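Sequence decides. Our protein:
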Amino acid sequence: MENYVITIARGYGSGGRTIGKMLAKELGINYYDREILRLASDDSGISEELFAKADEKLKGTSLFRTAKNVYKGELILPDNENFISNDNLFNYQAKVLKELAMKESFVVIGRCADFILKDYPNVVRVFVHAPLEHCVKVLESMNSSNAKDLEQEIIKKDKYRAAYYHYYTGRNWNDARNYDLCLNSRELSFEKCVEIVKQYLKIKMS
């Protein structure tokens, strides 16, 4: 089988990260999440701490509601004052993803990877979601926060992810047209979600 990439966008608490790890393990391929920040730091020479601070976040909440800076593949050079801007940090993450896609098969979580790799043929784009009340229950089982606080945290995180995605892609994060598969993790176990993606990948790559 040729190299392929599985991108996973996910609602907070839906289990997308867990599904991604399970997929990578079963397929015997690499799993990338925050590792992309380290690789982008190594590539650019910019501190990994700066990448972490900007990770899936945007400065100026009132600005990004309307503003867009759709990614087009450019890099800002070191002699430019915007070299360490959030936009250029995103550009270097995108560069790393494109280079990885040319060398190996992998699963990647978030980072607008479905958009960055939209012109690559062997990419399966997945969106994992679940109703709010289900995501609350999932997170309740993992920490001691109360349901009301968790509900507000989920809404806030998903709002940030949607705004970040729209800013760099010009698209709506939860629009099914952006993805090959949209999986409701409340209706399907994590194992079934993994199996569906594996079967889709097999059909697509055959």
